[in-house]
Amino acid sequence: MQGVEAYTHSQEFVSNWKALLCDVFGYRERDQFVIMRDYMCRAVYSYLPLLNYTDKTSEEMQSECKALGHRRYIARALNPEQDQFSEGDTVTMRLSLTGVANAEALWDSRFSGKVRNQIRKSLKSNLRHVVSTDPRVVDDFYHLYTRRMLRYGSPCLGREIFDSISHYVDCRFYVVYHDADAIAGLVLIRDGPLAWVPWASSDHRHNDRCPNHFMYWHAIRDAWAMQCELFDFGRSPYLRETYRFKHQWGARPVKLDILKAAREDTYSKYTLASQIWRRLPAALANRLGPVLCRHLPDL
Asked: What is the CATH number of domain 3-293?
C-alpha cells in the first residue's frame, strides 16, 4: 500500500507526545524510548504509550528494539505493505481525503449508503456540537469517556492528560449535545496532513439519534477544511464491531505491527480482568483506572 494511507506521525509530533507522557505520567526517557513500570514493577521500554504508531516504519522499529537486548519492550508501527489480514489482527482504519473537490463529495465517493442515511437522520435529530478545548467541554467529554470505558471493561486514563494534551499537540474536543445533555464526544488530533481520533465515546441511550455519525461527519468535514489528506479513525481488531463501523465510512485497514519481547494477543490478554472491571462501581473504577493506566504498556 502506497500514498496517504502509509503516512506515519512526524518526528516533531512524536517528540511532543513523549514530552506529554513524561510530564503527565512521570516516565523517564532513554534514547528514543520512555521507561515505564508495568503492574509488576518491571521496567518496560515503550515507543510510545497511547500511540498506535510513531514516526518509524516496522523495519526501523524492529532494529531499534533488537538493540535493547533482553530488556522488556513494546512498540507499534505501521506495516502498509501487509495486505492480508486475519480476524482479530490489530489494524488502524484510514480514510483518504484526497481527490475530492469538497467534503460533501465524500458522500458519493467514500461513504456507504447506510452511513449517508444515518448522517441524514442525525441532522434531523435536534443535535448540536461544540468544538473546543475549554475545560467545560473537556469535562463533558471526560464523563462520556469514563462511562464508556467502564461499560467495555477497560480502565480510564486520568483527567490530567486530557487537560494537558492541547498544550503539546494540535487537538480539539468535539462534544455533541441533545438539549443540555452531552451524548457523544471525540478527540481530534492534527499532525500535518494527518487527522487522528485516539478517543471517542457516546451515550448508548441516544443511539437512535445517531450522534456518532453526526460527530464523525463534522470531524471529517473539518479535517478536510484544514487540508488534511488522511483521517485516521484509530485502532480496531480486524472484522470486529469497531472495524465494521469505521469501514462503512470508506476507511481502509492498515496493519499495525506490535513488537514485544514476548508475543501475546493484546485483545484476549485481559479478557477475565475486563469482565471483572465492568462490574466495579463507577466511583471506584474512575479512581483506580488512572493509577492502573500508568502501568499498562500495551494500552
From this structure: 3.40.630.30
